[in-house]
Write a structure and sequence with these properties.
The chain is an alpha/beta fold. The protein has 2 domains: about 190 residues, MOFRL domain (glycerate kinase, domain 1, 3-Layer(aba) Sandwich), CATH 3.40.1480.10; about 180 residues, Glycerate kinase, MOFRL-like N-terminal domain (Rossmann fold, 3-Layer(aba) Sandwich). The protein contains 18 helices and 17 strands. It has a 6-stranded parallel beta sheet with strand order 8-7-6-9-10-11, sandwiched between helices. Strand 12, helix 14 and strand 13 form a beta-alpha-beta unit. Helix 2 packs across helix 13 and helix 3 crosses helix 4. The radius of gyration is 23 Å and the shape is globular. The relative contact order is 0.13.
């Protein structure tokens, strides 16, 4: 037992340093009434309840408070102690769609001990904090704010000296929120590269491998700037399997190579489409262009406050409470979004038809991250989870008691303001009744408009979290 400072009152209270801060359940889905106005209402409500419970369980604010405590002048991070009396200055840096809630917690925990802090989030997420400046930039394609924000990260990193402490907050979205191109590559080149990469259908780790080799801060390069200061990186995982290097991108050595990046560009047919300066850069390898494979004797600690397992475990728990036997189909969901949805739903249809695969009623759960490959100009807007939900219901009939919920846990699926989709066997018929060709709208990537018209789009606003995508299929 240790005497630990209560992060909300600042008063010393006696409790175990690893005790969990109580989680207050919030209503996250804003348009529940509309989503429950049609179709398989009872199952749709259960699906939304499972999704909402899971989102509450992966709130970075509470996770940060669980991982980090302050006992007088001793900072405890994942059971590792730091004597703040030996620290000259504390700096907080960070970027990503889950970092505002992390920053909010660190602002409360450290208070006036923070000498300076800058954290970058997606447009629309920022709220004022007392000791950390919050900046906004674009996602999934960077804007000018992204480049200006990266200069702030570099400035603070280089400002840190040997007896200083840098706390680095990271989550998914960091690659767009902060960009700083290598010499010879322009801001416009980086923006075009991001646009090409997010539309090519590549896996997230492949996209990041290319980005790292065009960046002065990614792939551990910012970690080199932070040295010789001590650096604590707090991450919220959004990568399949929770690999540390993909989640601590600024401060962790890079396992991908320069040649990997070149191969990925060829693999997805991008080599002839990328800007000429980028193609020239990748055509001439030099040792200096490779990302660091080691950070030497640097003083680094890494703490993953939320893992992807926390997301599907929460969905599993709530499914049981609602009377559905949960089955994790995969925690490594990948592939083309609409096709992944169709395959997942074919498994649900077999379970509904034969009752041999699973105990009915059941909840089939999948987490991961699918992608959308766009050829030419899309008709409208959409996102991976919206396409997955649309693909999943293509073969469903009203007689099948199957509901599909698919969301991006940050609340903004792709370049849209919507979290995902809630569909069932009535979805296609509803669209047809409104004169819409469901399949054609899906193929033309106009899923946001399609789902809005049939009241099957999920709206949460920014959740403050960003783990994996979550798919819940209920078979009643």
């Amino acid at each position: 037992m240790k005497n630990v400072t209560d992060p909300t009152s600042g008063k010393g209270i006696v409790k175990n340093s690893r005790v969990k801060k109580p989680i207050i359940k919030n209503s996250i889905i804003k348009n529940r009434e509309e989503l429950l106005s049609h179709g398989l209402v009872k199952a749709r409500k259960s699906c939304l309840d499972i999704i909402e419970y899971a989102l509450n369980e992966v709130d970075p604010y509470h996770a940060t408070h669980r991982a980090v405590q302050l006992h007088q002048e001793i900072l405890i991070v994942d059971n590792q102690e730091y004597d703040l009396k030996t620290i000259d200055h504390i700096y907080v840096i960070g970027a990503g769609k889950a970092t505002f809630r992390q920053a909010q917690a660190m602002d409360e925990i450290l208070g006036d001990r923070i000498d300076e802090g800058v954290v970058v989030v997606k447009h629309g997420q920022a709220k004022p904090l007392n000791h950390i400046k919050i900046l906004e930039s674009a996602h999934p394609v960077p804007d000018q704010n992204s480049f200006e924000a990266s200069l702030e990260m570099i400035r603070l990193s280089k400002k840190a000296k040997e007896n200083d402490l840098v706390i680095c907050l990271m989550s998914g979205g960091v690659s767009s929120n902060c960009c700083y191109p290598v010499d010879g590559i322009t801001d416009a080149d980086k923006i075009e590269m991001n646009r090409l990469l997010v539309h090519c259908g590549a896996q997230v780790t492949e996209i990041m491998s290319v980005r790292r080799h065009l960046s002065k801060i990614k792939g551990g390069r910012l970690g080199l700037m932070i040295q010789p200061a001590t650096c604590i990186t707090l991450t919220v995982s959004d990568a399949i399997g929770d690999p540390l290097e993909w989640n601590a991108d600024w401060t962790h050595p890079d396992s991908s190579t320069f040649q990997d990046a070149v191969d990925i560009l060829h693999r997805y047919g991008l080599w002839d489409k990328i800007p000429a300066r980028v193609r020239d850069y990748f055509s001439n390898f030099t040792k200096e262009k490779e990302t660091p494979k080691s950070l030497g004797n640097g003083k680094f600690q890494y703490c993953m406050t939320i893992k992807t397992i926390d997301l599907w475990k929460a969905a599993e728990m709530q499914s049981k409470k609602l009377g559905f036997t949960p089955y994790l189909l995969t925690s490594e969901l990948k592939g083309e979004s609409r096709e992944a949805g169709r395959v997942l739903c074919s498994i649900a249809r077999e379970a509904h038809k034969s009752h041999k695969l699973f105990d009915i009623p059941c909840a089939l759960i999948a987490t991961g991250e699918t992608g959308v490959r766009i050829h030419g100009e899309p008709k409208g807007k959409g996102g991976a989870n919206q396409e997955l939900g649309c693909g999943a219901c293509l073969d469903l009939t009203p007689e099948e008691n199957i509901v599909v919920g698919a969301i991006d846990t940050d609340g903004t699926d792709g370049p849209t303001d919507y979290a995902g989709a809630l569909t069932d066997g009535f979805s296609v018929n509803r669209a047809q009744g409104m004169g819409m060709d469901f399949h054609r709208e899906l193929m033309e990537h106009n899923t946001s408009e399609l789902l809005k018209n049939i009241s099957d789009i999920i709206y949460t606003g920014h959740t403050g979290s960003n783990v994996n995508d979550l798919v819940v299929i209920l078979v009643s």
